[in-house]
Amino acid sequence: MQIIKAVITAGSPAQRALPLQAIVDSDGTSKPVLAILLEDVTRAGIEEVAVIVPPGDEPVFRAALGPAPCKVVFIPQEGPAGYAQALLCAREFAGGKSFLHLVGDHLFVRSKGASCAGHLLQAAAEEDCSISLVQPTRENLLPRFGTIGGQPVRNRPYLYSVDKVIEKPTPTEAEQTLLVPGLRAGHYLCFFGMHVLTPTIFAYLAEVTASANGPLSLSAALNRLAREEKYLALEVPGCRRFDLGARYGVFNAQLAMALEGPDRDEVLAGLLDLVANRFALAETAAE
Fold it and tell me: Are 10 and 34 in contact, with CB atoms under 8 Å apart?
């Protein structure tokens, strides 16, 4: 399986500003989140990217992005019909081929070696199937993520065969149906925001969208896919996702990026200075 196309979803009205948020990359350069994502997937081997955006926002995204490292097209998502419908907008772009998908409101950071996207694309090439990156996540964070249930693949560390997918399960629901052998108590495998998907996903996306009374997430289609064909999940130690829409999400992402770059010592010194001053003020107030 060779993947040369990627789809980035940024069509939600609530999400639209996050891919345009300026972040200082690990190379010390300030750039939009979308630019960082495009550079990351291009280094992993992607040649063409479709970005799903709100209608009318194509010029805004194009202007904010500037020169792109690969071929980029902007596809408007007509109507706030949810995540599943957003991906459906890329059906023609995918052209019947498997593709990389990532969400535009996350940043993905890896400490050493190949990028998160690079690891996922390599695994997809080896396994020749749909595969999602996952991250062990505490149960109190389940309301923010799609979550999988499954079994470890024998003799393949960090690889799992997916049996079930539930979007934002309750802790009780997760405990009953989504336990994965080998994880710490109170932890579940939640989506990372990055997937390789075969073209059959579009049939399931169309099916769940047509049968829904309201917007549906990707998870419903992935749950159907897990029942019909080989579908795996991959954990990559050292890879971390940062949801920019979460409280302090942009701050945490910026800090992680800075600590991976050439200004690491400067950033650490600044943090230590802030902490020292905070303790000094607390001691003065207590006197």
Answer: yes
